[in-house]
Amino acid sequence: FKQKTAYEIKECDWSSDVCSSDLRIQHVSMKEIIEQAWQDRSLLQKPETIKTIETVIEQLDKGQLRVAEPTSEGWQVNDWIKKAVILYFPIRTMETLHAGPMEFHDKMALKTNYAEAGVRVVPHAVARYGAYISPGVILMPSYVNIGAYVDSGTMVDTWATVGSCAQIGKHVHLSGGVGIGGVLEPVQAAPVIIEDGCFVGSRCIVVEGVRVGREAVLGAGLTLTMSTKIIDVNTGAELPKGYIPERSVVIPGNVKKQFPGGEFFVPVALIIGQRKASTDLKTSLNDALRDHHVAV
Question: In sequence order, what are the residues at sequence separation of 6 or more whose Cβ sits closer than 8 angstroms to the Cβ of residue 281?
């Protein structure tokens, strides 16, 4: 049995002899078992259900399954995998864990074997078992939750958090204090997606399934939610919420809005230009902003 990559798994029929020869449990697909347990929680007592949930989490941990994955038609959310993550909690028991002098008391194990995985982990970075951290990733003191996917060459800087099921691309820089939101429920909800080559400035917050396109630059302190207005300052056009176009340079701003109690300012995201083709992919945030005559 040859393990499938994340991109091959999507098209794999888990009930077939080829794809599930050592994963099939009583000739019922993993997805079917998860869906059945989702509808009937009494099935969480059955050994085959427990084994299936544990197998899904193990494959998430190894990057062989993903909660969301890019396809030719855009990003696809695999709801049944999110359900497996949620179902993993009730089948776990509390235990005390130790990492040197540190003590934890939780249901979830921590990731281990970083050296073998080719991942640099600076004390006191923490990643939960069930999150995939690709070779070449650097974790400064930070936190990565279960179900997350962090691709190769990415830097998760000090006090940055990567929430449950968030998808972080290759060669992304999550600066200090960045908050990437997690999402487990509702299961249909898309996770936050930061695509390849993005630079996310210090203390940015990206939540609620927002997707940031390839090589975009987010200025420090920007907050992006599914209700945040996104405005192109060069045209005045308001763009669709929830998506930052590729290579956009974005800074926080505000606009006036009328409320019953008066007129107030609400935060918006301002696209001030595009990252120049001549700009090195490792450019600093300051350089990218200076390209567009923004004071830093």
Answer: 171, 197, 215
